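Subgroup meeting minutes
Present: P.N., E.W., G.H.
Scribe: E.W.

1. P.N. recapped why we're keeping a running log of single-chain structure predictions: easier to compare across weeks, and new members can see raw inputs and outputs side by side.
2. G.H. added today's entry (393 aa).
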Amino acid sequence: MNKRKDPKTTNDAVEMALESAVELGEIGIQVAAYVGDELVIDSWTGDARTGVAVDAATLFPVLSVSKAVTAVALHIQAERGLVDYDAPVALYWPEFGVKGKEHVTILHVLTHQSGVPGMPPATTPELMANWDWMVNQLAMLDPLCPPGTKNTYATYSFGWILGEVVRRTDPMHRPFDSFVREEITEPLGIDDLWIGLPPAQEHRVATLVGPFEQPTNSMRKIAVPDRVPVGPDLFNQAIVHQACIPSASGIANARAVARFFAMLANGGRLGRVRLLSESRVRLFTTLRPHSYDKDDILDDVALVGNGGLWLSGRDPVVGKGPNILYHTGGGGTYGWADLDTRVAVGICHNRMFTKATAHAGDGTKHPFSELGKAIRSVAAPGNRTPKARALPE
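Output recorded in log:
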């Protein structure tokens, strides 16, 4: 049975939107939102797995929302003067600079224009959990195209490339999961977000449900080999939950996702902890070059900013604010930050859907469309309880 919810973070409109999402096909779902540094929404409904209800402690695989955390880890190194966005990856990782990858820059990787979205063909779930094998194999890959010439969403490789740069530029050379814990989640007071889940927490993870079949093309098969498909078959495995896969193995609840994005919504700061300068976070809203060109991996247009996060424009859930940073995870998980309103949101769930399968029920509504509207209503000026506070510099 679901635990009793705090009335301060429960809202009738949000509760109704959650129930609407279930009617439209959702199984288990959590939503949380911050305004400024205050948690104003923290709700859930449905089943984490057969016979087990979602509650405040339930964790979910968040897949590519992990990329936002990985990008911030890289930006922390840039903030410290340890990484230059325009420098080649090979400056920090010499072994990477072979076979035509000598001129791939950090910014190319952040913006999915590196030309290196591929994965070693022999990759298995077990090998994805082997950091050294993965980075050594990625360093030897041939690029698919020259850097900066095409949009090629690096479904998996994005995380290992940036993660290895973070590891090599860290004066203590910590493993990437340790860096995330010690430099991001612990300082921000986030208890339930991991890239590399401790085995003792495995029992809390919700079961993902499909079917989840994404359109395939020859380029995507290079980025997502057949033995490691994006979907429940891979991301329900404990070995994947517990591995440090910086693009995809994040495990969290909605409250943790929202708190992470609250740091971005507040210009790189949460409470008394600043991870990034506000000017740097604002730069993330600049679109990458050729942003309206179709991505050869996604087979669609993706509006990606120079910070490695996506920018709103066409998404029916996050809204259309000009300064909204967000990232989705395969199957429909969301995290977003509105830099203008200081609203930050996390939506975690366990029914993986694609654009083609998102609409259920009457066939016209995205299952989270009403939820997005309800969140914006609760967070609107005059409706905030408690009111958001502008954080002093």
